[in-house]
TrEMBL record, chain A:
Residues 305-487 form the Helicase C-terminal domain. One of its GO terms (cellular component) is post-mRNA release spliceosomal complex. Belongs to the DEAD box helicase family. DEAH subfamily. DDX15/PRP43 sub-subfamily. The lineage of its organism: Eukaryota, Fungi, Dikarya, Ascomycota, Pezizomycotina. It is found in: Nucleus. It comes from the Eukaryota. One of its GO terms (biological process) is spliceosomal complex disassembly. The keyword Cytoplasm does not apply. This is RNA helicase. PANTHER family: ATP-DEPENDENT RNA HELICASE (PTHR18934), ATP-DEPENDENT RNA HELICASE DHX15 HOMOLOG (PTHR18934:SF109). It catalyses: ATP + H2O = ADP + phosphate + H(+). Residues 40-60 have a biased composition (Polar residues). Residues 115-280 form the Helicase ATP-binding domain.
UniProtKB/TrEMBL annotation, chain B:
It comes from Viridothelium virens (Speckled blister lichen). This is G-patch domain-containing protein. Residues 1-77, 169-194, 216-249 are annotated as: Disordered. SMART domains: DUF4187, G_patch. One of its GO terms (molecular function) is nucleic acid binding. Residues 239-249 have a biased composition (Acidic residues).
Length: 770, 315
């Protein structure tokens, strides 16, 4: 392969065509949060700002535009200044620079069409390919017509991801020449960057759902835009069901459903035949190649394909889709090794390889926007970059310059199964829609090629049409609690776009009942109402609320925050042993929860806080996660204070210090308990009787008959992860309903629990006699 | 000894656990030794890692394949669902025929095989299995045929034997009156004195015909043996052809006689051996009140005591 490298034709030798404008990541709305220094630092006027002034000037700025009757021409005039139509300030030079770019976006040519449809209907379905500008422009189009600030309302635009909500808000603030957090703001879990003057709010779909819990009609909003609806997140699905009903109650509310894929019919049907507007994206044709035979090893085939493209195809960057961090790092290493040989033996150009996955630090994620390397010698073969990514590069991140896509056809997906109550990330075949989306990534800059590492027949026969929406793959206990709080009583007939399996609802109800969040009739209890105030899983919320009973609410608060952020412990492939040694410094013999708490306490020590970043680096800990945990803790603390939940600690010297924490854990996680088998080799989960192993990351040092776990994960084996030792007496004591021995199946667990009951009774009797 | 206690613990024994209270109170030393040994064996043979993994997978798969809605009606969640108005069928506002009843299945991918690789392997395996199955079927058919044939042949052989036996009985029963052959010396030259073969009932005529044939052959052989020295002489002495002709004539007449046309017999012989046997047996019953299966000649027409016509009826 390497020797039969064709002579590159003149075209590929030509100068790289990408303009600096296209390559400049500061123009990428998803990365706007990384360029804070450049944009929107000046908010000198913010202090003198008041809403009366705003409404006056705004009225002035938009006085030519009749609400819900405005045209693109009128809006254009207002946009052209010289004063900001929303706050009366004079517009900056940068504003006009950006305006020029904005007017080149595909959506701009259809502004009038959009307005006419928006004005004439309540619900509109809008389809725009990624890159059409819909996320940044449509909300602004709406602002000019809807003028929410003049009616004490807001426009909401939801995003499935926090990062997108933040970045897009930042970008749009810059486009509108306003300070982020003023006219344009964002709201994500644990962070609210809005002010009374905010008229356009980007927010996660989950946040809008939480707002609906306290404001069933979402009366603060005059228009609600659900963006990226095609991603079908759990929150977006629930919101669609809610909006369907709210639309009846509020004829004044306008709703725009935005999707990036062409399967808009489903949305139209769901919203009773809502009209559709399609804006074509700026895409080039993509030629698709299939393999003549199924691949025995897709990873090996993917690496081979990347190398082949590099050796034989004309200039253009490569995007390879793989499933997860480990696989991606492995592939990057292998490609790098092979490319060296290709360069030496076949005079191939240089190849820069970048991994991309969610847990990668932002600075490293940003490297994917680096331009491809130049030829090694002037006039030599052009270099290229190869991005090896999870499916975050499928829709949420756009990398310009990609001409070749390599698609092995797999991704990691969360799957929940109520039958054994397991929620796991599993490597699964992607859907046809996903495959098309991936292929489309090759046609962003110029005509491209997509190499599918499977046969065309397999594409047709083995891939499902659409990826299963999240609601079908999730534990619904949080959602059910939210729905109850939203005032939805008929959960069974809620208009789900794709109804989940009945068993999933049944499990959720059962779990909430055992957690005493719902009573036997399915009604919210006081505890349930309180728990729904917390943006947490019900088990975590209940644990937090119950923690004062165990005199350790401070510690449980920290622990809850730590359990809500990504992995604390960093374990780089090249320093596993050192990382493990460092982890051992914090290890607590009774388990991982207490170990995490040790980490947090050490992180908060004066010594660590002198240079926390360095301290984390030295101890193989994720600074980002710990910082995030700190923030989450603060937000949760506010909710606790508001709900009058007492914050307290058992003195550290007290020998019950750790025991109290472990008991408090039981109050939330009593349904996630496993007992060691007499053989001492495996554990069996309580009630579901699944055989599980302790995850290799567990620190549990002594043999513990009963353990509580945070997660049940499936790989090729069944594992429980984040594990702490507990005592059967606590289980019986703290959750007598769940541990009603009569209801247990005959077997080792029942026998052991019965023995514990008898022992407790004898002890009790003994006490009384004395 | 406490048999009731032992019975109570039967379930637990099935789960391969030795509960503490399974020990009968009045255990004999032999029982104790047996129990200790059993326990020690279990300890000495802990399950291997792969056994445990397989078991874990099996319990997981079996749990994943059974609905918790139906398997456990006492479940709290099921009761709450019922209170919320759930009866059967999928959730949702209704009207969606594709609404989901089953949770999404968990498919664990254990290797790096590409899309379509497993189904391709399965397809190949299926094809091979299919081919093998057809082959096996073919072979099996042949085998069955062979066995059937062997069985049929054996059956025929047996019936042939019975047929001859029946004919001999008929000859014995009827022979003294009807057959003149007995009176004649077998191999007697004067065959014209014999009753014509056709006068013998067709059902046992073959026996006679064969008898005659046999006699002739025996006679011819004897003749030949007797004539041998002469023949040797004639060969050596250049005997003329007349004598040869005589010899030939001697054999030839036998041939002639036997080959005498007897369409009735030919017709009878063309029947299947079982049918011939039936006919002989029926003949014996009718003419001689003799049951071939009872091996008894009944004194009267009623043949009282004979269970029936067939061998099966005679057990």
């Amino acid at each position: 392969m390497a020797d039969r490298r064709p002579e590159p034709d003149g075209g590929t030798r030509a100068k790289r065509q990408k303009t600096s404008g296209e390559m400049d990541p500061s123009n990428n709305p998803y990365l706007a949060h990384m360029y804070e220094d450049g944009d929107g630092t000046s908010n000198g006027y913010a202090e003198s700002y008041n809403s009366a002034y705003s409404s006056q000037t705004a009225q002035h700025g938009l006085s030519e535009l009749p609400r819900h009757k405005s045209t693109a021409v009128q809006a254009k005039k207002a946009e052209d200044g010289p004063h900001n139509p929303f706050n009366g300030q004079s517009l900056s030079k940068q504003y006009f620079n950006i305006l020029k770019v904005r007017r080149n976006l595909p959506v701009h040519s259809q502004r009038d069409e959009f307005l006419r449809m928006y004005e004439s209907t309540q619900i509109l379905v809008f389809v725009g390919e990624t890159g059409s500008g819909k996320t940044t422009q449509i909300p602004q189009f709406v602002l000019f017509d809807d003028q929410p600030h003049l009616h004490k309302k807001m426009v909401a635009c939801t995003q499935p991801r926090r990062v997108a909500a933040m970045s897009v808000a930042q970008r749009v603030a810059a486009e509108m020449d306003v300070a982020l957090g003023e006219e344009v703001g964002y709201s994500i879990r644990f962070e609210d960057k809005t002010s009374p003057s905010t008229m356009l709010k980007y927010m996660t779909d989950g946040m809008l759902l939480r707002e609906a819990m306290n404001d069933h009609n979402l009366s603060r909003y005059s228009t609600i835009i659900l963006d990226e609806a095609h991603e079908r997140t759990l929150a977006t699905d629930i919101l669609m069901g809610l909006l369907k009903e709210i639309a009846h109650r509020r004829p004044d509310l306008k709703i725009v459903i935005m999707s990036a894929t062409l399967d808009a019919e489903k949305f139209q049907t769901y919203f009773n035949g809502a009209p559709l507007l399609t804006v074509p994206g700026r895409t080039h044709p993509v030629e698709i190649f299939y393999t003549p035979e199924p691949e025995k090893d897709y990873l090996e085939a993917a690496i081979r394909t990347v190398l082949q493209i590099h050796a034989t195809e004309p200039e253009g960057d490569i995007l390879l889709f793989l499933t997860g961090e480990e696989e991606i790092e492995d592939a990057c290493r292998k490609i790098d090794l092979e490319v060296g040989e290709l360069v030496r033996e076949a005079d191939a150009g240089p190849l820069e390889i970048y991994p991309l996955y969610g847990t990668l630090p932002p600075q490293q994620q940003q490297r994917i926007f680096n331009p491809a390397p130049p030829p090694r010698t002037p006039g030599g073969r052009p270099g290229r970059k190869c991005v090896v990514s999870t499916n975050i590069a499928e829709t949420s991140l756009t990398i310009d310059g990609i001409v070749y896509v390599v698609d092995p056809g797999f991704s990691k997906q969360k799957v929940y199964n109520p039958r054994i109550r397991v929620e796991s990330l599993l490597v699964s075949p992607i859907s046809k829609a996903s495959a098309q989306q991936r292929a489309g990534r090759a046609g962003r800059t110029r005509p491209g090629k997509c190499f599918r590492l499977y046969m065309e027949e397999a594409f047709n026969k083995e891939l499902i049409e659409q990826t299963h929406p999240e609601i079908l793959r999730s534990n619904l206990s949080s959602t059910v609690l939210e729905l109850k709080k939203l005032g939805i009583d008929d959960l069974v007939h809620f208009p789900f776009m794709d109804p989940p399996a009945p068993e999933t609802l049944m499990r959720a109800l059962e779990e909430l009942n055992y957690l005493v969040c719902l009573d036997d009739e399915g009604e919210l209890t006081h505890l349930g109402r309180l728990a729904s105030e917390f943006p947490l899983d019900p088990a975590l919320a209940v644990m937090l609320i119950s923690s004062p009973e165990f005199y350790c609410s401070n510690e449980i608060l920290s622990l809850t925050a730590l359990l809500s952020v990504p992995q604390l412990f960093v374990r780089p492939a090249n320093a596993r042993k050192r990382a493990d040694e460092m982890k051992d410094l914090f290890a607590h013999q009774d388990g991982d929860h207490l170990t995490m708490l040790n980490v947090y306490h050490a992180f908060k020590s004066d010594q660590a806080q002198q240079n926390p970043r360095q301290w984390c680096h030295d101890h193989f800990l994720s600074y980002r996660s710990l910082q995030q945990a700190d923030n989450v803790r603060l937000q949760l603390k506010r909710i606790m204070e508001r709900s009058e939940i007492e914050l307290m600690s058992t003195p550290f010297e007290d020998k019950k210090y750790y025991e109290n924490i472990r008991r408090a854990l039981v109050s939330g996680f009593f349904m996630q308990v496993a007992k060691q088998d007499p053989s001492k080799k495996v554990y069996t989960t309580v009630k579901d009787d699944q055989s599980v192993l302790l995850h290799p990351s567990c620190v549990l040092q002594q043999e513990s008959e009963w353990v509580l776990y945070n997660e049940f994960v499936l790989t090729t084996k069944n594992y429980i992860r984040t594990v702490t030792a507990v005592k059967p007496e606590w289980l019986l004591d703290i959750s007598p309903n769940y541990y009603d021995v009569q209801t247990f199946k005959k077997g080792e667990i029942k026998r052991s629990l019965q023995a514990t009951v008898d022992r407790m009774r004898r002890r009790e009797a003994g006490k009384e006699r004395r | 000894m406490a048999p009731t206690a032992a019975q109570d613990e039967e379930d637990d024994y099935m789960t391969m656990l030795i509960p503490d209270d399974a020990v009968p109170r009045n255990e004999t030393s032999i029982q104790r030794r047996a129990r200790k040994q059993r326990e020690a064996e279990q300890r000495a043979h802990p399950k291997t890692k792969s056994e445990l993994e397989r078991e874990a997978r099996e319990t997981r798969d079996s749990a994943l394949s059974s609905s918790i809605l139906t398997s456990n009606p006492d479940n709290k969640g099921a009761k709450m669902m019922a209170k919320l108005g759930y009866k059967t069928g999928p959730l949702g506002a209704g009207g969606d025929p594709n609404a989901r009843m089953e949770p999404i299945s968990l498919a664990m991918k254990e290797d790096k095989s590409g899309i379509g690789h497993i189904s391709e392997a399965k397809r190949k395996f299926r094809e091979e299995a299919e081919a093998l199955k057809i082959d096996m079927k073919k072979r099996k058919v042949n085998e069955e045929e062979f066995q059937e044939r062997v069985r049929a042949e054996q059956q025929e052989k047996r019936m042939e034997g019975q047929l001859w036996a029946a004919m001999k009985i008929a000859e014995k029963l009827e022979g003294p009156e009807e057959s003149v052959r007995e009176e004649e010396k077998p191999g007697s030259d004067d065959e014209s004195k014999l009753r014509p073969l056709t006068s013998i009932p067709v059902v046992w005529r073959e026996l006679v015909r064969r008898g005659i044939e046999q006699d002739r052959q025996n006679h011819a052989q004897r003749m030949m043996r007797e004539s041998l020295p002469q023949a040797r002489l004639s060969v050596s002495n250049n005997l003329d052809e007349d004598e040869d002709e005589d010899d030939a004539q001697a054999f030839g007449t036998v041939e002639e006689e036997i080959e005498e046309e007897d369409p009735e017999l030919d017709q009878f012989n063309a029947l299947y051996v079982g049918d011939r046997l039936d006919k002989v047996i029926a003949y014996l019953r009718e003419k001689n009140r003799y049951c071939f299966w009872c091996k008894y000649q009944y004194p009267n027409e009623e043949m009282e005591g004979c269970p029936g016509l067939t061998e099966d009826e005679h057990g």
